[in-house]
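Session log. Operator J.P. requested a structure for one protein chain; no other inputs attached. Running the standard single-chain path with token output.
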Amino acid sequence: MRKKISAFLVLFFGFCFATTLQAQDSPHPELFVQEVSRAAAVAFQKRDGLVVWLDRNTGERQLFGNPALLAEKFRPGSLMKLLTAEVAMQRAASFQYRCSGFDRSTGKTRHCWTSRGHGELDLAHALGVSCNLYFSALAVRLGFQALRHTLQNYGFAEASSLPPSLSPSHLADLGIGDSPLFHVTPAEMLQFWESYLQRLARPEFQALRQGLRRAVREGTAKRVGAVGLEILGKTGTGDSELAAYRTNGWFLGAYPTENPRCLLLVLMKQAHGFDEAARLAEKIFRLAKSFAIVR
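Structure written below.
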């Protein structure tokens, strides 16, 4: 009798345990949306902002924050480096650069975001650490027409209104997304990100994939890498033209690194650099992992 009871208890608790595991492994999209909405509300208490989560398999799109920002224009900041890097890949332009923390080659002194400099860089490394001086110099080397052509191909509206030519100094600004002549909307940036990720599947764009992985593992987006998922990511800081002491923070993310299914865009308006956008992105990916949206 005792053996029968013991066997029954083993089967019963085994069933309960298996059922619990199955429940934990099952996606909970409603809870995910609810918790992301709460996280976004907290993040946007003192400033305006926007989050877009897109599932490419289902086409489902979740928007949190202020939807009016989708059509508002902002400087792209370091997200522009994605385009500058692609132009280099299209032209098979191998470019090595030593970042010492400052550069005077365009007629004015430019500083990288780290005064120590990044040392010797190739494209993948420069993208991972988001080196301003590398991409400023690369933009000047590639030329204005090549950059404008790529911007037009991606459908950025202001690309067509750029002047016929730019000085090396202004071209360097454009190459890192800090030109007062060029702005993007979050809607444009999300459309760009979808197209860009499709191109990343090409073998010739391997350096871009490596750079975006590196950004998450050890670069400016490493906060997101702490989630423990294979994510592609890029941060951006665009100067605000409303307040000199404020910037607009961007984050673009995708999961998984191969054939990404889930895309994330975060915009923090009037923030202190990209870190606040990356912090919110980290929370969102943690929630996606907790509710089995991503695995």
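Operator note: Strands lie at 49-55, 61-65, 97-99, 102-103, 110-111, 119-121, 232-239, 247-255, 262-271.
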